[in-house]
Amino acid sequence: MNEIDTLFRNNREWSERRRREDPEFFARLIAQQRPAYLWIGCSDSRVPANEIVGLLPGEMFVHRNVANVVVQTDLNCLSVLQYAIDVLQVRHVIVCGHYGCGGVAAALRGGRLGLIENWLRHVQHVALEHRELIDALDDEDKRSDRLCELNVLAQTANVCRTTVLQDAWARGQEVAVHGCVYRLADGILKRIAWRVRQPRDLEPALAAALGRIAASSLT
Predict the structure, then answer these.
(1) Do 80 and 96 belong together in one domain?
(2) Any catalytic annotation for residue 77?
(3) Beta strands 60-65; 92-98: pairing state
(4) pLDDT digits (tens, 9 = 90+) for 56-80
(5) Share of residues in the chain with pLDDT > 90 (%)
(6) Domains in the chain, number
(7) Are 102 and 178 part of one and the same domain?
């Protein structure tokens, strides 16, 4: 059996197991998609969004890319954000990075990487903005992990500044934005940015988060 055949076999076993455990599971999925959460995370295969927060398929809308970047020119990400908020009416947007992120580490090291250099430039801009906080650490892994935190903070702010969020808040829609980092070593989520529920929450939330990051030893 080759690798692809294994996936199809696993799929059949999963489907059968799911129907045994919950005969109405797939009928509910067909009926509607009404998740309360949008997850914007890294493409890393070690960070399965639904699983690490204990949710089933259909309970979380997910967008992933290398290093969980949110930029105003990425129509893919913005389209997901707009659909999640305007159509699905999600109540929470979660930006999640993870310690040990290869994309973030590559952005910090620099060097020639090919096409992905253009994408990681967004993370490098975050590193340049917070150079002192990163250089204060004497270990390369810790510097990379600090950039993971700072990148989550920056991308959380970028979400809040999109026209999608600004318009939603202007019309009184209740949607909160959160930033967190996932720790591969033990599977625990760490909050980086506390919930932002309206435009005036953003700057105080950023300042408080930067203070916590600066005070953290990453031990």
Answers:
(1) yes
(2) no
(3) unpaired
(4) 888 999 999 999 999 999 999 999 9
(5) 86
(6) 2
(7) yes
